[in-house]
Amino acid sequence: MNKSKVGVLSCSGEECLGGTISRLATRKVMEELREGKVVSLCLPLYVAGGQEERFFAKAFPVIAVEGCDKCCAKKATEKYSGDVSDLVVVSDIIGEEAAAGKTVSTRNLSQEHLDMVDKVAEDICRKVDKILAD
Ligand code: SF4
Q: Does the beta carbon of 43 sit less than 6 angstroms from any atom of ligand 1?
């Protein structure tokens, strides 16, 4: 497996805060914290048959980032490309109740939300670093 980059596939949870935090943390890792080392994959495109996304997930390690323990991104990856290398479940980090709460638009994020994004992003980074170091 090619370990020059790590793919991060966030769930697309539009209905709950866990999904929002999952997407924002993934973007922060890709654009700021591990720029150039991480490629984010689009779950809807992946499920719709995006060949590039599916090829990438077969050839490179992938971390699934999930809003809750239903683990939709991991299941989609396993169905179309194979095992994921690691998993981040937002509800395990910010708590199930918070993760199941109402989603917020990016314009209305509070400091508490931003702290949640940071915590999840840190966990993704730890896992990216471990994969790249192995
Ligand atoms: S993992 Fe949970 S939050 Fe994410 S899309 Fe699936 S059900 Fe929604």
A: no
Beta-bridged to residue 40, according to DSSP, are 8
* CATH number of the domain enclosing 112: 3.40.50
The tally of domains found in the chain comes to: 1
How remote is the CA of residue 98 from the centroid of ligand 1, in Å? Answer: 14
Structural domain contains residue 1: no
99 domain-assigned = yes
CA–CA dist 109, 45 (Å, integer): 26
Q: Which residues contact 4 (CB under 8 A, 6 or more apart)?
A: 60
12 lines ligand 1 (CB under 6 A): yes
pLDDT in tens, 84-122: 999 999 999 999 999 999 998 889 999 999 999 999 999
